[in-house]
Design brief:
The complex is a heterodimer of chains A (478) and B (485).
Chain A: H1 7-15, H2 21-34, E1 41-44, H3 46-62, E2 72-76, H4 103-110, E3 114-119, H5 153-160, E4 166-171, H6 177-183, E5 186-189, E6 209-214, H7 217-227, E7 256-260, H8 261-264, H9 271-286, E8 290-294, H10 299-317, H11 336-347, H12 350-363, H13 369-392, E9 395-399, H14 415-420, H15 426-431, E10 435-442, E11 448-455, H16 460-477
Parallel strand pairs in A: 2-3, 2-4, 7-8, 7-9
Antiparallel strand pairs in A: 1-3, 4-6, 5-6, 5-10, 9-11, 10-11
Chain B: H1 3-6, E1 9-20, H2 59-71, E2 75-76, E3 79-80, E4 83-86, E5 96-99, E6 106-114, E7 120-132, E8 136-138, E9 147-149, E10 156-162, H3 169-186, E11 198-208, E12 218-221, H4 226-245, E13 253-258, E14 263-269, E15 279-280, E16 287-288, H5 291-299, H6 305-314, H7 320-327, H8 330-339, H9 346-364, H10 375-386, H11 392-405, H12 411-417, H13 426-439, H14 441-448, H15 454-466, H16 472-484
Parallel strand pairs in B: 12-13
Antiparallel strand pairs in B: 1-10, 1-11, 2-6, 3-16, 4-5, 4-15, 6-7, 7-10, 8-9, 11-12, 13-14
Helix pairs in contact in B: 3-4, 6-7, 7-9, 8-10, 10-11, 13-15, 13-16, 15-16
The chains are: A alpha/beta (478), B alpha+beta (485).
Chain lengths: 478, 485
């Protein structure tokens, strides 16, 4: 079967009778089996996916198919899907099955998408390499000795290796954008609150946002338009109307673009990545866009601020995994206190435990003001400065990650180095603005380089249109 | 305790009252709050804190909290943040309670109570905030494991924190009774301490009366009746005084009240207290109280006990005792209010309410809402008496009981149909009086010889002949005329 790069291509072949939804699902299931060593999927929903495909085929035949008929989607193991296991790649949720379906997933199904399976990720979405999964690491399909990025590593590799057409992940500090960058695919985090979080396992609630990994910007736009919008089950979701993003991708606007000077001068930035992104800057300038260097004075503060706030929220959000109501419970408890301690020590991996400890510390009465309160203030400064820049500039561009995919095990001994891999992605998360990573080149090792674009809150139509424009331009010029 | 010792000390008391709100659904989900269901039946994935679930605010919780704030003269916080209070306990499904920390919805109010001498006293309200209840751990006989019932988890509460303005157990009792009256008048809580819908913790310290600083405060929990709050405070004050008298230091700690022994025992010291790690709840947006919303709630506020009390005393001229009894329960007070629209004999109305009506309700254990008579019907009975158509005794013993059996009638109809209207027609009565005198010539002689007390016997005979319908005044007049003739 040929490789599809967008739902549009799939629909053309479906319409021409060259393929059926069932055949697509069968092929993707074969691919998943053949590339099982990538460890991208934790499980597949074969029978159910085939039944959904048959239903989509019937609806296509009688003209009642939804927008996503023919779209085969994998979901990160942080999204609730009724009757299916859900465990955030953690042993603490061993054996747990969700009793309900996440709002976003429900909306995909309502438009006749097929959900093919559950994807590996860093435990509780905490990580930048997918090495923190209790199911083992996911391998980068371009180089099996390298990581796919994280935390939505399985989701990125699934699209990279043609195991499904698109993946739904989550992005708290770059967890969709950074693996997309490492795997050469599109990774898109919408504005905070654009998509309901109901049914998304919480890591850091004021940052978490469902994101999309796809081969084309057009598919990302279409999936956003299906999943976004008000939801009675999420009090924080935006009440704004949802534009038909996928129909708004054409653009001939000459934009004003800022590139954050400090990012390009940062020590850890790989030279090839830097050159690649700078060449895009030049390409855009030549195409008639205004591209200017801008200063963002808080670069040194964004990673500490991000980790103080996200670990604080995580320490609370993960309190519910206590062995009392569901999931894993230790066999070695002697009393209530030992049940809590042993259950959580045995059920959570080391990185999750580290972040719970950090978060508990920064929220403790004696340190609250020094850490949590201060970080909240810095977050507001970062947001205000980012919003201010995005009033002057339509987009801010910067690398998605300072390097291309690194080796498995390269950073596992040094959590701080791992945290710094997030340096370019957490700004958009702290500010709540939408950001996207698109593949713009490869380094000497053939590893993918991602360009990140941020836009003002709810500026998705222009952000997606401009990303699409850049990808078209690169293809034409290549 | 010797009063000479006791009198050297002053107690300082503040109360924290939790009131379970009478909403139909839980504070942050649409799960039912119905009481008495089978364990773990009022549940959903939200109550059970399944992964990925989120809270939603129940608007009626906010409205009930606002009502209590208005009733206690509080300032209303317009920009409210919810907060998480983090701790581990099996009855707390999320690992945190959604509450309010830095921005309680109501602040700086007060209520008026009576002190131990019966004088008016104002007790400050520090804050009222909204939160959710936990589930219940159950230790069943023969069961080695602890079981948890989550029906109550997420049921809305308000916590009402008083200023440390309370000085003794009588004031504490009166404060708590006033809180109970208010929540019942507002229809936001059933006020039942025994069933736990109203709960009270007390912070108590003692100091020498001229001491510049307050003593160390001790928190007493687990007082599950109004009387027990009074008992626990009494005991705790004396315990602390004894500690100080014996040269010791009162420990800052939480103590448990044991209703069987009437004493308190240490539960945990303040040093080992949980650090609850409060922080703003990121899953709920700030709650903003708009003026229009608040105005609507103000407009719909019912009359409150102290307003009614004032009106009963000042407008209806009732004794304070009557006003206090009548305003104790909202429905009685409202019935009385209605009754006063149909009569101007307010004292008689009060007597009827506190007398016959209350006895009837008590005897049959009925609530006033199940009382078969309308206020107009009671007013009708009062009018019969006032117009001398029946005596009070006939009204109470015959008209009222008959009316209860035949609530479709009015008092006048009962008196007519039952032939109870008083005979004040002196012509007919004169004949009856004469007949009685003629039938008892010996007694008449005795009377004339000076035995004045025989008037009662003659009146009894007259009443017998008239079946009690003789207007006693007229009959008495005629009798004396006949005897003295």
């Amino acid at each position: 079967m040929k490789q599809y790069n967008s739902l549009r291509d799939v629909r053309t072949d479906l319409t021409n009778g060259e393929v059926t939804c069932r055949q697509l699902v069968e092929q993707y299931l074969r691919n998943i089996n053949e590339k099982a060593e990538l460890n991208a999927f934790l499980e597949t929903f074969d029978e159910e996916a085939l039944a959904q495909a048959d239903a989509a085929d019937r609806k296509l035949a009688n003209g009642t198919a939804g927008k996503l008929a023919g779209m085969v989607i994998g979901i990160k193991d942080v999204l609730a899907y009724q009757g299916h296991r859900l465990q955030a790649s953690s042993q603490i949720l061993d054996g747990f099955k969700s009793l309900y379906t996440a709002t976003a997933v429900q909306r995909l199904l309502a438009e006749d998408a097929v959900i093919i399976g559950r994807q590996n990720c860093d435990e509780f979405a905490m990580g930048a390499s997918n090495e923190n999964s209790s199911f083992g690491p996911v391998l980068n399909a371009d180089d099996h000795s390298r990581v796919p990025g994280g935390s939505s590593g399985g989701s990125a590799v699934a699209v990279q290796a043609d195991l499904c057409l698109a993946s739904i992940g989550s992005d708290t500090g770059g967890s969709v954008r950074q693996p997309a960058s490492f795997c050469g695919v599109v990774g898109f985090k919408p504005t905070y609150s654009r998509i309901s979080r109901y049914g998304l396992i919480a890591y850091a609630s004021s940052f978490d946002q469902i994101g999309i990994i796809s081969k084309s910007v057009e598919d990302a736009a279409l999936l956003l338009e299906v999943m976004a919008g008000p939801d009675a089950y999420d009090s924080t979701v935006s009440q704004r109307d949802v534009p038909a993003y996928s129909g708004l991708l054409a653009t001939d606007t000459r934009y004003k673009i800022g590139y954050i000077r400090d990012c390009f001068e940062s020590e850890g930035l790989d030279a090839e990545v830097k050159d690649s992104i700078l060449s895009i800057k030049d390409m855009l300038r030549e195409a008639g866009h205004t591209v200017e260097a801008v200063d963002f004075p808080y670069l040194d503060y964004i990673v500490p601020t991000y980790y103080i706030l996200t670990t604080a929220e995580a320490s609370s959000n993960l309190g519910r995994y206590d062995g009392v109501k569901y999931g894993y419970r230790t066999d070695n408890a002697t009393d209530l206190s030992s049940m809590y301690k042993k259950t959580r020590a045995e059920g959570f991996g080391l990185e999750v435990q580290r972040r719970i400890m950090l978060g508990t510390f920064v929220l403790s009465a004696d340190y609250y003001d020094a850490y949590y309160t201060k970080a909240q203030k810095v977050r507001r400064l970062i947001k205000e400065k980012t919003d201010e820049l995005l009033q002057t500039y339509d987009f801010l561009i910067l690398p998605t990650a300072p390097t291309t995919a690194f080796k498995l095990g390269e950073n596992t001994a040094n959590p701080l180095a791992m945290y710094l891999a997030d340096i370019f992605t957490v700004q958009a998360s702290l500010a709540g603005v939408p950001a996207i990573s698109i593949p713009v080149g490869r380094d000497a090792n053939g590893l993918s380089i991602g360009l990140q674009l941020m836009s003002r809150s709810f500026g998705e139509p222009a952000l997606l249109a401009f990303s699409n424009y850049i990808l078209d331009k690169i293809t034409v010029e290549a | 305790m010797d009063t000479s010792i006791r009198d050297k000390y002053q107690a300082i008391i503040g109360l924290e009252v939790h009131a379970q709100l009478l909403t139909e659904s839980k504070a942050y989900s649409s799960d039912s709050t119905e009481y008495g269901m089978l364990p773990n039946s009022n549940l959903s994935v939200i109550t059970l804190a399944h992964p990925g679930t989120l809270p939603r605010v129940n608007k009626s919780v906010v409205e009930m909290a606002l009502k209590m704030g208005l009733a206690t003269n509080c300032d209303i916080t317009r920009y409210n943040l919810y907060a998480r209070k983090n701790y581990f306990y099996p009855d707390l499904p999320k690992g945190y309670q959604i509450t309010q920390d830095k921005t309680p919805i109501c602040t700086l109010g007060y209520i008026n109570i009576k002190d131990a001498e019966g004088n008016d006293k104002r007790i400050g309200i520090t804050r009222i905030h909204m939160e959710e209840d936990a589930g219940k751990s159950m230790h069943l006989p023969g069961e080695t494991e602890t079981l948890v019932d989550y029906n109550r988890a997420g049921v809305p509460l308000i916590e009402i924190v008083s200023e440390p303005d309370i000085r003794d157990s009588v004031e504490a009792y009166n404060y708590l009774m006033e809180i109970k009256r208010l929540v019942k008048y507002l229809d936001i809580c059933d006020g039942n301490m025994e069933e736990g819908s109203l709960r009270c913790d007390a912070n108590i310290s003692v100091m020498l009366k001229d001491a510049p600083l307050w003593g160390t405060k001790v928190e007493v929990k687990n007082m599950n009746s109004f009387r027990n709050v009074q008992r626990a405070i009494e005991h705790e004050i004396e315990r602390q005084i004894m500690v100080v008298e014996n040269g010791g230091k009162v420990e800052g700690e939480t103590r448990n009240f044991d209703a069987n022994t009437g004493s308190t025992t240490a539960m945990r010291s303040k040093e080992t207290l949980n650090d609850y790690r409060y922080f703003p709840e990121p899953d709920l947006p700030p709650l903003i109280i708009h003026q229009e919303w608040l105005d609507g709630i103000k407009a719909a506020m019912p009359s409150l006990p102290q307003e009614l009390y004032k009106r009963f005393v000042e407008v209806y001229g009732l004794p304070e005792y009557d006003a206090a009894v009548l305003t104790d329960a909202k429905e009685i007070a409202l019935y009385f209010e209605e009754l006063c629209k149909h009569t101007t004999n307010y004292k008689a109305a009060s007597n009827w309410m506190m007398g016959q009506v209350k006895s009837y309700l008590n005897e049959l254990q009925l609530h006033i809402r199940d009382f078969p008579l309308q206020p107009e019907q009671i007013a009708g009975i009062i009018a019969l008496v006032d117009e001398n158509k029946v005596s009070h005794s006939v009204a109470a013993k015959q008209v009222f009981p008959y009316l209860l059996e035949h609530p479709e009638l009015n008092a006048q109809q009962v008196a007519e149909q039952q032939n109870l209207l008083q005979q004040s027609d002196s012509g007919e009565l004169t004949q009856i009086v004469q007949a009685v005198l003629q039938e008892n010539p010996a007694k008449v002689e005795e009377y004339k010889a000076g035995k004045q007390s025989l008037v009662g016997m003659f009146m009894g005979e007259i009443m017998k002949k008239t079946k009690g319908k003789a207007d006693p005044k007229v009959a008495n007049q005629l009798l004396r005329e006949g005897l003295n003739a």
